[in-house]
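Case study.
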Amino acid sequence: NAGVMQNPRHLVRRRGQEARLRCSPVKGHSHVYWYRQLPEEGLKFMVYLQKENIIDESGMPKERFSAEFPKEGPSILRIQQVVRGDSAAYFCASSPQSGNTEAFFGQGTRLTVV
Amino acid sequence: GEDVEQSLFLSVREGDSSVINCTYTDSSSTYLYWYKQEPGAGLQLLTYIFSNMDMKQDQRLTVLLNKKDKHLSLRIADTQTGDSAIYFCAEARGNDYKLSFGAGTTVTVRA
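After joint prediction, the assembly is written out as follows.
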């Protein structure tokens, strides 16, 4: 579906730089979820946001990571001072209401830290 | 290790049935899901089953749930080349928005 759009698809950053990952949800969806997939592992929940609110950030690392979903525009996952261990695929999903039976996932952003 | 476990690879002949297995650990899981990821694409929800059900059938897909053994399986009948993909098992614990995924099973369909 033309639904969830993530960009960029691939992002290369040097250690210490900042990475900004964007997620445009399906039109009309006000719930956004970010997941991270490390190599050869399953997706891990990071954060759940509604417009202008962080609902659950229990999966976010305590430092360097932040997320927002402003009233206008895409959701942003921001990683400051990236390290090699941040290299992963970051997936965004959106739904019209809380829950996953109607959630659509984006194609993911593959972050490589060199 | 992963809380949700699945074998990493499955090779199946076109026209045969595929069975992908998954074990999970949280007996309080409310929903269990199967997602499909084709190359370069996002995860597509294939089907899900509520924890009080044993089986769910949807066209070529059959999901079996054994709560006692915490075992979930996905059977694809008459497997086609378009079924080649990575299949993820996931469980929802408590609040159903927070999913725990397995590492994915790569299914390869050979002619």
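Observations recorded in class. Chain B touches chain A through 26 residues (CB under 8 Å). The mean pLDDT of chain B is 90. We will return to this complex in the next lecture.
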